[in-house]
Structure formats: structure tokens, C-alpha cells
Design goal:
Length: about 325
């Protein structure tokens, strides 16, 4: 009796091993190369639309995971990207759901384009459970064995990977420098675009920072002009007054998101010039024109252009004594409109 029971236990164990080895207990077609990961290609490029694509390998050991995992894509056109999957998204892929993720921008930084990846859990389920026994022979077929795969959602996904529900799990933002030897954070010095008194000024400083870990945080150190502010995102702005003309030096510090954080400091030169004086065309008309042509509101010269006024000054004898600059003539013409 004990011998029979022992034989039954051994037979059951052997059957379980055979199921695990063959995946579905049906005719096998073992591939020459065993898979340990699934390769997924980007569906399309967005921001801007691009004709190229990238692929990424997702190891089977990450499915049903308990942590966020980042993956660097293949290199195309001299650059690559990063995608990141949360623990919830990896768990949903194990169940056979579909996951949509947007990649980071390119590394090295060529422009701001990203790629959209549609990862089908059904593909990963098949390749992790079935492919190493059946190659591609069983893709899309109905359930092959009541125990493989174990979840009904997985069985549904094996038959139709592209029609399975989309994951609603939390997403994570990928860091484009993941998996690279990060450059040292640096901040270039430069002369910024000039500002004009009385005119609102703004310029972003982010193009002058390189390396480190994104995102950056910006701040001003030391003394700086009272009219100027710098946002944490790197936007310098404000409206200089008449007393702010001249070359102004602003010392800026950028801090990255590494732990511990790296910082870089440098000086930016900002040249503030005085705005052009405002010319009062109505006052000039009163001084030079009103005596002959009446008050401005009902002037006989309403609608005259600057070219017509210039021509009259040069050809009408009574106007020969008038001396006006082209800017003043234009101001009078503007007042006459």
C-alpha cells in the first residue's frame, strides 16, 4: 500500500514536471534559441512624428513584478530612449493586459521626440510560457491545457493579444539618462539676449545646462537686479526700469535630481538698454502744422502719409523752414490717421 502511494506521488510529480517543461502538454517544436525576454517595438513616434522606431527587451523575470523597472531601447539613428514600467503595469502584463507607455526623449539629446510603445501582455505570456516548447506553432490558438497558463485572462490574451483590456495601473516617468554613464553637471556662461527698459523680458536658461540627472532646479545666488526673477524651472523674467540700463551680471545655480544632488554655478551677462523715447506726434502737429491746416481733429491734411509730408516739406516754400527727423514726421503722420 505504501509502495503504491509512493508510486502515485512520483507519477504526479513527474506529470507536473512534464507540464512545466512542455508548457501545454501537447506536441512540441522546441526552438533552437530559448527566449528569456520579449522584444517589443515602438508603435509610432510622437512629438514630432518620426519614421524610425526602437525596440526594447522585457525579461520574463520582471513580469508580475513588485517594483518599477526601466529599460533602454535599441539604438536607431545614433540615439536611444528609455521606457519605465510600474509594478502595477508589470503585474497587468503578466495577466495578459495591454500597456501603453511613452518613452523618454532621446539620448544623446538630439531633439525632444518620444515614442509610444503598445506592449501586449498576450505576447509576453505566450513567449514566457509557450514559445520555448512550441516555437510559434501555437500563437493565437485556443486553450491548449487547462493548467497552462493558470489565469483565465492569460488564456484570453493568448488567443487575441491585441484586443485585451488596457492597463489602468499607475504610470511612471522615464529618465532619459538611465543606463548611461551620466555626464558631470555643467552650466555654461553666456551673454543673454538683451533687455529693454519698460519692456517685459523673459528667457529660459535650460539650454545652458548639460549632464547630471533631470529634472533641474534653478536659483539665483548673491545679489541681483531687483526687477529680475528666476523660476525653479529656469525661466528668467521681469521688466527693467530706466535706472537698470547697462551690463548686469546674474549668478545662477542649477541643481540636478541625483541623490546626492550635484550643483553647478556660473555667471550670466544681461545687457539692458534704454527704450527709444516716445515721440508725441500730436504735439509736433500743433507746433508745426496747426497754424496752416487747422486743429488736428479736423485738419485738412487728415490721412496724409509720412512720405507725403516729407515731400511737402521739400517742395512747398512756406514749409522750407521746418526741420523734422523722419521719426518725428512718422509720428505726425500717425497722429493724422
Amino acid at each position: 500500500m505504501k509502495f503504491s502511494l509512493k508510486c502515485m506521488v512520483l507519477a504526479a510529480a513527474l506529470a507536473l514536471v512534464l507540464v512545466n517543461l512542455t508548457g501545454c502538454g501537447e506536441g512540441t517544436n522546441t526552438p533552437s534559441t530559448q527566449l528569456t525576454a520579449s522584444s517589443v517595438s515602438s508603435s509610432s513616434a510622437i512629438n514630432p512624428v518620426s519614421s524610425h522606431s526602437h525596440s526594447v527587451a522585457i525579461p520574463f523575470s520582471d513580469l508580475g513584478g513588485t517594483r518599477t523597472v526601466s529599460y533602454r531601447t535599441s539604438v536607431t539613428s545614433g540615439h536611444s530612449h528609455v521606457i519605465a514600467l510600474s509594478a502595477g503595469q508589470l503585474s497587468d502584463l503578466y495577466k495578459g493586459y495591454r500597456v501603453l507607455v511613452t518613452s523618454s526623449t532621446s539620448y544623446p539629446a538630439t531633439d525632444s521626440h518620444t515614442h509610444l510603445f503598445e506592449i501586449q501582455g498576450g505576447q509576453l505570456v505566450y513567449e514566457s510560457i509557450c514559445y520555448n516548447c512550441h516555437s510559434n506553432d501555437k500563437r493565437g490558438v485556443s486553450q491548449m491545457n487547462s493548467s497552462q497558463p493558470p489565469l483565465q485572462s492569460q488564456k484570453n490574451a493568448l488567443q487575441s493579444p491585441s484586443t485585451q483590456p488596457l492597463s489602468s495601473a499607475e504610470s511612471v516617468t522615464p529618465i532619459f539618462t538611465y543606463g548611461t554613464t551620466a555626464q558631470t553637471l555643467a552650466l555654461a556662461t553666456t551673454t543673454l539676449t538683451g533687455a529693454v527698459t519698460g519692456t517685459f523680458y523673459s528667457q529660459t536658461l535650460t539650454p545652458y545646462a548639460t549632464g547630471g540627472t533631470l529634472p533641474y532646479t534653478w536659483s539665483i545666488t548673491g545679489s541681483y537686479p531687483a526687477w529680475l526673477t528666476l523660476s525653479a524651472g529656469g525661466l528668467i523674467s521681469g521688466t527693467p526700469t530706466a535706472t537698470d540700463t547697462g551690463n548686469q551680471t546674474v549668478t545662477v545655480k542649477v541643481t540636478d535630481s541625483a541623490n546626492p544632488a550635484a550643483t553647478a554655478t556660473n555667471n550670466f551677462i544681461l545687457v539692458v538698454t534704454a527704450s527709444a523715447p516716445v515721440i508725441d506726434g500730436a504735439a509736433l502737429y500743433i507746433t508745426n502744422c496747426e497754424r496752416c491746416h487747422g486743429v488736428l481733429a479736423s485738419s485738412s491734411k487728415r490721412g496724409r502719409s509720412a512720405a507725403q509730408i516729407t515731400s511737402a516739406i521739400g517742395s512747398v516754400g512756406s514749409m522750407s523752414g521746418i526741420s523734422l527727423t523722419s521719426a518725428q514726421i512718422q509720428a505726425i503722420a500717425t497722429a493724422l490717421q
